[in-house]
Automatic annotation (TrEMBL):
Record's keyword terms, sorted: Coiled coil, DNA-binding, Isomerase, Topoisomerase
Enzymatic reactions: ATP-independent breakage of single-stranded DNA, followed by passage and rejoining
Cellular component, GO annotation: chromosome; mitochondrial nucleoid; nucleoplasm
Active site (catalytic residues): 560
Free-text function comment from the UniProt entry: Releases the supercoiling and torsional tension of DNA introduced during the DNA replication and transcription by transiently cleaving and rejoining one strand of the DNA duplex. Introduces a single-strand break via transesterification at the specific target site 5'-[CT]CCTTp site in duplex DNA. The scissile phosphodiester is attacked by the catalytic tyrosine of the enzyme, resulting in the formation of a DNA-(3'-phosphotyrosyl)-enzyme intermediate and the expulsion of a 5'-OH DNA strand. The free DNA strand then undergoes passage around the unbroken strand thus removing DNA supercoils.
Protein family membership: Belongs to the type IB topoisomerase family.
Annotated segments matching region Disordered: 23-42
UniProt-recorded Gene Ontology molecular function terms: DNA binding; DNA topoisomerase type I (single strand cut, ATP-independent) activity
GO terms classed as biological process: DNA replication; DNA topological change
UniProt-listed Enzyme Commission number(s): 5.6.2.1
Subunit-level organization: Monomer. Interacts with ERCC6. Interacts with TPRN; TPRN interacts with a number of DNA damage response proteins, is recruited to sites of DNA damage and may play a role in DNA damage repair.
Lineage of origin: Eukaryota, Metazoa, Chordata, Craniata, Vertebrata
Protein's name according to its UniProt entry: DNA topoisomerase I
DNA sequence: CAGCGGACTTAGGACTGACCTT
DNA sequence: AAGGTCAGTCCTAAGTCCGCTG
C-alpha cells in the first residue's frame, strides 16, 4: 500500500509543479515523512533533508516587557479602610488585580483564592501580617489610575499619537524580522508575554495565579552558529544560546503556570510556515484517495470480537462523521475539564432509540477545546448505536466511554492505514471537502458578486458549524442589526419612490416622445436599477449577519480550508480574491495564490 | 513501551485604530 | 471634537502529536 501512495504522491507533486513553474524551483514539494522501517538506507539523507528546517537563522532576540514602574504617591491602596504603602513587589502584583477589577472573571472564587495566595508570596513578612483577607482590600484608586491613564493616552493630540506609532514601527522593524536562509521574514510574536494574572478559559483551576515576568535569564536563543548572536539587554544574559536547525523557533522560555515552553516563532506568511501548511493539505488530499477504504474497514471493525478494535472503529466513525478532535488525556487539576473523542465519558452522551423522527440518535453534550460546548443530536448507523450501548454497560457517568482506546493507539493505527495520517487530518479533510461541495451547490454563475460572496460565506459557515467554531454573540450585535434594518427600510422607501418616478417618466415620454423625455426615462431606469442592486446587497448582508451571529468563520478559513479551493472558486466565478481574503490572509496563503488554477480540485 | 516534555497547530476574545456620523 | 462601529490585529491559551527516555 505504501508504494502505491508514494506513487500517487509523486504524481500530485508533479501536477503542482506544472501549475507553478516559477515557484517550483525555489520551493520544492513538501516531503513525505518516511518511517525508518520504510527506508532504512535513506534515513540519514532524510534526517538531513526532512528534519532540517533552515541553514541560516539570524534575529535580534525577543523584545522584553518594560520593567515595573511604581505607582505615583497619590495613588493609594487601602486595607480595611486604611491606606497601606506596599513594597514594590507586592504593589506590582496588586496592580495586576487592580487593572482587571471591572472584569466579571475576577469575581470567581478560584480566581480570587489563587490570586491572593500568589500575592502573599510577594509580600514582605510585615505586609503578610496585615493583609489577611482579599475582601478587605480596596484597589479602586489604583483601578481608576489605570483607567485614567488609558483615557489620557487615547486623548493624546494627533502628533503625539503619530510619534507613538512611529516608535512602535521602529521597534517592529528592529525586532519583528529575522533572516532565514537569506530571506527577511516576519516574526509572529517578537515580544515576551508581560507579567499578569493567568486567565485560563472555562473553569480553569489555575485562574488568577501570577504569571511572572520573563527575563533574559529565562530565555533560550536559537540561531545559526555563524550569525550575529543577539545582544541581551544591558546587564543581563541569555539562559542559553543554541543552534538547533531541526526546530522552527527563534527563542523560548518556560512559563510558570503550566510549566510549558513558550516560543518566539515565524509569522504565518513565512516560507517555512507556508510549506508546512501546504504539506498539511496535501496529506488531507491523500486521505481523500483512501477514505472509502478506511470507511469500509471501520464499518467491518464494528463487528470485531476484539473490544479494543470495536472502540477504535466507533471512535474513528465519530471523528470522521462529526469532525471531533482526537481528545488527548488531560491531567486533572491542571486545566479545565474538557474532552475530545477518545476522552469522552459516559456522562457526555445520551442514547435515544428514536428522536426527532429518526432512529438511533446519539445526543452529545460536552465541553471541547477552550471549553466550547458541543451540543448535537445525530442519528448514527445501527451498529454504532449498539456498540455505544455496549460501551456504556456497567459504567458510571464519570467513566471513559472508550476505556480501551487512547489517541496514541488510534494514531498508530491510522499511521498504518496511510502514511502521515492522524486523527486531525480527518478534520482538515472533511472541512475542505465540505467547502468544495457547498461552493459547488450554492454558487450561481449569474449571481452578482455580492450574492456569490454570500454563497461563499454560507459554504464557509457550513464548515464552521461542522467543526463547532463558535463565538460569543458580538456585544454590539443587536444594535448593529437594527441599524442595518433601518438602512434596508430607507432603501425600500427610496425604491418605491423611484418606481413611481419611473412610471411618471414613462408616461411623460409616451405623451411627449422627444429626446429629452427619453433621456430622463433612461436616467430614472438607471437610478431604479442601482437602488435595487443596493437593496439586494443590504439584504444579503443582513441575512449573512443573522446566520453568522454565533458562528466564527475565521478559524476554519485560516486553519482547515485548503486555500486553493477558494482561490480556484474566485477565478472560476470572477470574484476578486481580495473579497475573500484580506491582506494578512493573502500573505499567509501566498503559497497557494499562484498554484491554484480555476480547475483546481481538492 | 508508557509516560512525559517539546514543538507545533488551532482557538476565541480583547484590543486597536481607521473610518464614519453626530 | 467626540463618539460609535467594525474589520483587522494582537495575544496567548489550549489543543495535537511526536520523539525521547528510563
Amino acid at each position: 500500500m505504501r508504494v502505491v501512495w508514494a506513487g500517487r504522491w509523486l504524481r500530485t507533486a508533479y501536477a503542482l509543479f506544472r501549475d507553478t513553474p516559477q515557484r517550483s524551483a525555489s520551493r520544492g514539494a513538501p516531503r513525505q515523512r518516511r518511517t525508518q522501517k520504510d527506508c532504512r538506507a535513506g534515513w540519514e539523507e532524510e534526517k538531513s533533508t526532512d528534519r532540517v528546517k533552515w541553514r541560516q537563522l539570524e534575529h535580534r532576540g525577543p523584545y522584553f516587557s518594560p520593567a515595573y514602574e511604581p505607582l505615583p504617591d497619590g495613588v493609594r491602596f487601602f486595607y480595611d479602610g486604611k491606606p497601606v504603602k506596599l513594597s514594590v513587589a507586592a504593589e506590582e502584583v496588586a496592580t495586576f488585580y487592580a487593572k482587571m477589577l471591572d472584569r466579571e472573571y475576577t469575581t470567581k472564587e478560584v480566581f480570587q483564592n489563587n490570586f491572593f495566595s500568589d500575592w502573599q508570596k510577594e509580600m514582605t513578612a510585615e505586609e503578610r501580617k496585615v493583609i489577611k483577607h482579599l475582601d478587605k482590600c480596596d484597589f479602586t484608586e489604583m483601578h481608576r489610575y489605570f483607567v485614567d491613564k488609558a483615557a489620557a493616552r487615547k486623548a493624546l493630540p494627533r502628533e503625539e499619537k503619530q510619534k507613538l506609532k512611529e516608535a512602535a514601527e521602529k521597534l517592529r522593524q528592529e525586532f519583528g524580522y529575522c533572516i532565514l536562509d537569506g530571506h527577511r521574514e516576519k516574526i509572529g510574536n517578537f515580544k515576551t508575554e508581560p507579567p499578569g494574572l493567568f486567565q485560563g478559559r472555562g473553569d480553569h483551576p489555575k485562574m488568577g495565579m501570577v504569571k511572572r515576568r520573563i527575563l533574559p535569564e529565562d530565555v533560550v536563543i536559537n540561531c545559526s552558529r555563524d550569525s550575529k548572536i543577539p545582544e541581551p539587554p544591558v546587564g543581563h544574559q541569555w539562559k542559553e544560546v543554541r543552534s538547533d536547525n531541526t526546530v522552527m523557533w527563534l527563542a523560548s522560555w518556560k512559563e510558570n503556570i503550566q510549566s510549558s515552553v513558550k516560543y518566539i516563532t515565524l509569522n504565518p506568511s513565512s516560507k517555512l510556515k507556508g510549506e508546512k501548511d501546504w504539506q498539511k493539505y496535501e496529506i488531507a488530499r491523500r486521505l481523500k484517495g483512501v477514505v472509502d477504504e478506511i470507511r469500509s474497514q471501520y464499518r467491518a471493525d464494528w463487528k470485531s470480537r476484539e473490544m479494543k478494535r470495536r472502540q477504535r472503529a466507533v471512535a474513528l466513525y465519530l471523528i470522521d462523521k462529526l469532525a471531533l478532535r482526537a481528545g488527548n488525556e488531560k491531567e486533572e487539576g491542571e486545566a479545565a475539564d474538557t474532552v475530545g473523542c477518545c476522552s469522552l465519558r459516559v456522562e457526555h452522551i445520551r442514547l435515544h432509540p428514536a428522536a426527532d423522527g429518526q432512529e438511533h440518535v446519539v445526543e452529545f453534550d460536552f465541553l471541547g477545546k477552550d471549553s466550547i460546548r458541543y451540543c448535537n443530536r445525530v442519528p448514527v448507523e445501527k451498529p454504532v448505536y449498539k456498540n455505544l450501548q455496549l460501551f456504556m454497560e456497567n459504567k458510571d457517568l464519570g467513566d471513559d466511554l472508550f476505556d480501551r482506546l487512547t489517541t496514541a493507539s488510534l494514531n498508530k493505527h491510522l499511521q498504518d492505514l496511510m502514511d502521515g495520517l492522524t486523527a486531525k487530518v480527518f478534520r482538515t479533510y472533511n472541512a475542505s471537502v465540505t467547502l468544495q461541495e457547498q461552493l459547488q451547490v450554492l454558487t450561481c454563475a449569474e449571481d452578482s458578486i455580492a450574492a456569490k460572496i454570500l454563497s461563499y460565506n454560507r459554504a464557509n459557515r457550513a464548515v464552521a458549524i461542522l467543526c463547532n467554531h463558535q463565538r460569543a454573540t458580538p456585544k454590539t450585535f443587536e444594535k448593529s442589526m437594527q441599524n442595518l434594518q433601518t438602512k434596508i427600510k430607507v432603501k425600500k422607501e427610496q425604491l418605491a419612490e423611484a418606481r413611481v418616478e419611473l412610471k411618471r417618466a414613462k408616461a411623460d415620454h409616451e405623451t411627449r416622445g422627444d429626446g429629452k423625455s427619453r433621456s430622463l426615462l433612461e436616467k430614472k431606469r438607471r437610478v431604479l436599477e442601482k437602488l435595487q442592486d443596493q437593496l439586494a446587497r443590504l439584504s444579503a448582508q443582513a441575512t449573512d449577519k443573522e446566520e453568522n451571529k454565533q458562528v466564527a468563520l475565521g478559524t476554519s478559513k485560516l486553519n482547515y480550508l485548503d486555500p486553493r479551493i477558494s482561490i480556484a472558486w474566485c477565478k472560476r466565478f470572477r470574484v476578486p480574491v481580495e473579497k475573500i481574503y484580506n491582506k494578512t490572509q493573502r500573505e499567509k496563503f501566498t503559497w497557494a495564490l499562484n498554484m491554484a488554477g480555476e480547475d483546481f480540485e481538492f
